[in-house]
Amino acid sequence: MNDADTKIEQVLKAVIGRAADRTCPPLLARAVRYAVFPGGARLRPKLCLAVAAANGDSDPALSAAAAASIELLHCASLVHDDLPCFDNADERRGKPSVHVAFGDQIAVLTGDALIVLGFESLGQAAGNCRSPQRLSTLLSITGRAVGMPFGISAGQAWECEADVDVSQYHQAKTGSLFVAATCAGAAAAGADPEPWILLGQRIGEGYQVADDIRDATADAETLGKPVGQDEALGRPSVVHELGLNGAVRRLRELIDEGVESIPACPGGDLLRLLIVEESKRFLPSGLARRAA
Q1: Which domain holds residue 130?
Q2: What is the CATH number of the domain that holds 93?
Q3: Which of 64, 108, 224, 245 has its CA 20 to 30 A from that of 136?
Q4: Rounded to whole angstroms, how far apart are CA atoms 136 and 122?
Q5: What backbone torsions phi and psi does residue 111 show, to the nearest 5 degrees?
Q6: How many domains does one find in the chain?
Q7: How far are the Cα atoms of 112, 200, 257 from residue 242, in angstroms, in the given order?
Q8: What single-letter DSSP state applies at residue 125?
């Protein structure tokens, strides 16, 4: 995983470096860097690289570009999610949100620019990768993850609806990029992405359940962002629907189902171990022990 962290940071720095150069409007360049660095856990790109590795990773340049694309799209979603018209969150990753640091206008443009960069990073890989014929599949995977009806744009839109199915909301708002991570990792390595959908769905929903639990039980200093937002904004929440103990049980079920869904592949056993270990980081230690 340390190697994956290094690779992800290198590719992200290269992509941002090409875009946020001296010819870019200075505020936008600074805001884009601010939104991406330092990053969070980088769970989605690490999952992408782990699935690629489990399938032999026959085109490392392409899998790295796919991982970076997914992380840039995730960062874009965070910038937009924090805006006053949505969560109105003043803090993200332990520092002021982009709209607080740079203003609403630059924040909107930063999110937009990061979405475009996510796709541009895949396009730039065409000249460096061994298997450019795989790019069309990767573009389709990432496009579905950010668009509609099932992507993060749709997930954000569900927050504007009066009647919401919590599982459907979670699959779009959070699960879609995890599905993109597993499917893109497989596709970049030349494997069929379809059998990897369920793993992404289960991990994505599990992560959102864990986020609901953290929002209800953790403190802002620990999370690096405001807490109690689900209740304050009337958003769908598994904790509200199932209670805390029920939410913790649901998280455990989702991770177990995800691990069991991993298709036969050369690195399947190691991938299962990695997912189980990473899932332990989803919750504070006390709740994590309850979920074990």
Answers
A1: 2-291
A2: 1.10.600.10
A3: 108
A4: 10
A5: -60, -45
A6: 1
A7: 35, 22, 19
A8: G
